[in-house]
Amino acid sequence: MNLLEKFKAYIKQHNLFQPKDKLLLAVSGGVDSVVLCELCKQAGYNFIIAHCNFQLRGEESNRDEEFVITLAKNYGVEVLAKKFDTEKYAAENKLSIQVAARELRYKWFDELLNKMKSDLHAEVANCQPPTAYWLLTAHHANDNIETLLMNFFKGTGIGGLHGILPKQGNLMRPLLFAKKEELTAFALANNLRFVEDASNASDKYTRNYFRNQLIPGLQKVFPQVEENLLHNIDRFREIAQLYQQAVNETKTKLLEYKGNEVHIPVLKLLKTKALKTILFEVIKDFGYTAQQTDEVVGLLQSETGKYVQSATHRIIKNRNWLIIAPNENTEAGIFLLEKEGHLEFAEGRLHLKKIVNIQSPILHNPLAAQLNAAEIKYPLILRKWKPGDYFYPLGMAKKKKLNRFLSDLKFSVTQKEKTWVIEMDKKIVWVVGLRIDDRFKITDNTKDILQISLTVAK
Question: How far apart are CA 321 and CA 315, in angstroms?
Answer without folding.
Answer: 10
